[in-house]
Amino acid sequence: MKVACVGGGPAGLYLSILLKLRDPAHEITVHERDPEGSTYGWGVTYWRGLLDRLHAHDPESARAVGEHSARWRDGVAHLGGPAARHRGDEGFGIGRHRLLEILAARARSLGVRVAYEDEVTASDPPEADLVVAADGVRSALRTEYADHFGTRIRTGRNPYLWLGTTKVLDAFTFAFAETAHGWIWAYGYGYGPRGSTCVVECAPGTWSGLGLDRAEEAEGLALLEDLFAGVLDGHPLTGRAAPGAGPAPWTTFRTLTNRTWSRGNLVLLGDAAHTTHYSVGAGTTLALEDAMALAAALDGQRSLPAALARYERERRAALLPVQSAARYSAQWYENLPRYIGLPPEVMFALLGQRHSPLLPHVPPQMYYRLDRAAGRLEPLRRLKHWLGPRVARAVQARSMPDAAGERRVPAAR
């Protein structure tokens, strides 16, 4: 089969690796519009389960990814006084540039053609048996046929900003700072021996009240360094990592969904098909899992339409719990005043429970007491596990038809 992967991110590169491993006779080209090594950003995060699945699919690239990843087990929350540290699942961070370097090298070693500075447009699509749109949330091929795909975008409320820092964090770190204009917070995690990723978020009124909506980049970074000085320990924050990429822009998160993921021999992969809020740290994992599922579907079906239908069906089902968790996590931060005044041990416990569909509908102190009781009493634990998904489905069903901030993306003309 002749395959064209449009987009040289983790999803497109990993799919090319898996397809070549299954059948070396496949003719695969990865088309990436940017120059090699020009990716922006710092590090991405993932968890032990993904690394185990990478080892099951391709031990060679998995070993390289694991060897170049930072690891942690703790979560740390900073809110004024002493930091609260909690033991959690094993997490990993890896530099985005290094991850792409590993995957591109592995793909080339298997015979994949990786073509940089090779932009694919909807008016001149590649000739192939299968065209994979793995070119991100602004996918050109998906946008061209947005009416067919049923693309919808729901815009979040809070502005946020991706940054880097030379401070090497030894845990997944949450930091909250109070200002005269409201709270501002950051999530941070290490991705190697030289730095960490730091995502800053706040409510719109705080953003404008602090002047971050109109500040020059250097001025804005200096203000944020001062606000999070207790976490940064004198280390600077940095904007876009790639030379010439311009200042890092504040933006609001766009949750993208599609009614269908394929059109003839064109199929969507990763962020081109779906996005999940950054606060659950699942974007890279979901993209790589998409690649695993698509490769398996193509390997197990004689018919391309049947394979693409199987891929979409399986991934939609797998995404449901993650998308629900991401939606409630984003809402938790958008409603931070509901939790920030609680005793620190309660607030930090509810931070860990922010994915729960029950939490928005139960007074926080009551939820905290019920959750602690559920941890000790099996009947309450079973009730929580039974009730939570049902509340999530009911709330989602009511909100989907006319979701606030949601807009239909028209097809290109």
Task: Give me a quick take on this structure.
This protein has 413 residues and is of the alpha/beta class. The two termini are 31 Å apart. It contains 15 helices and 16 strands.
Unreliable segments (pLDDT under 50, ≥5 consecutive)? Answer: 396-405
Q: What's the tally of helices?
A: 15
Give the amount of beta strand, in percent: 15-25%
Shape: globular
Helix content: 40-55%
Distance between the termini: 31 Å
Largest sheet: 10 strands, mixed
Would you count the extended β strands for me? 16
Averaged pLDDT, please?
A: 89
Describe the structure.
The chain has 413 residues and is α/β, with parallel strands linked by helices. The protein is 42% helix and 25% strand. It contains 15 helices and 16 strands. It has helices spanning 10-22, 48-57, 59-67, 96-109, 140-144, 146-149, 204-209, 217-227, 229-232, 283-300, 304-334, 337-340, 344-352, 364-376, 378-399; strands spanning 2-6, 27-32, 43-47, 70-78, 84-95, 113-116, 130-133, 152-165, 172-179, 182-192, 195-202, 237-238, 251-257, 262-263, 266-268, 406-408. The strands form 2 sheets. Strands 3, 4, 5, 8, 9, 10, 11, 12, 13 and 16 form a 10-stranded mixed sheet that branches. The protein has a 6-stranded mixed sheet with strand order 6-2-1-7-15-14. A hairpin with a 2-residue loop joins strand 9 and strand 10.
